[in-house]
User: What shape does this take?
Amino acid sequence: MTNAIYMLDCYLKEFEANVESVKDDKFVVLDKTAFYPNAGGQPYDTGKIIRLSDNAEFAIVYVAKFGDVISHEFSPAGLKPGDKVKGIIDWDRRYRHMRMHTAAHVIANVIEKEAGAKITGNQLGLETSRIDFSLENFDREKFVEYEKKANEIIRENRKVNLSIVSREEAEQKLSRLTTLAKGFPPEIKEVRLVEIENFTIEGCGGTHLASTGEIKGIKIAKLENKGKDNRRMYFELVDSLL
Assistant: This one.
């Protein structure tokens, strides 16, 4: 089991760890990691690992999660079990994804609350992210107002709180209980909650900002009709609001 230390400290840029196993001279498992794996619509982190005994550097090019183990694809070959290493996150990439992920929670919840839509999927990107949702009455003009409401939440700089709680406590706190019931297997005993104060609380394993103000702003870039009740919205980050 890998200790995913990014779960409660998303701002950790560097960390020290021990190499637990290496497979095919290209996949390494550490006892703990701050590298985020490809999951939940959020892309993986990149960066590098430095072996502390000789300062040899290994690029981290992909990170994935298999059960409770996080595997890092690295290059060149050379890491061995027992090596002590320092991990360094590509912070610009990570922070951009953090802004996108917290922004996605804001705009998705505005759409849910204002339009009565059900969020069905998402994919975060560095430049553009998308949210898929089910909505019968697709009034495109109203999305101008949804964007405005989302940016009001951002401008208010609401605090974002992270916590890991029992499944039972999560079921009591979550506003989207049906999502929890369908999205988490029965063997899940603990849930990581992301709360935007006085706005929403959700189960989510991604990396997030400490406050909505760090998003700066969002802009809806495109709306698509993907078939019966299936809609798609693309949004971008903006660095300032008028």
Q: What stands out?
A: The mean pLDDT is 92.
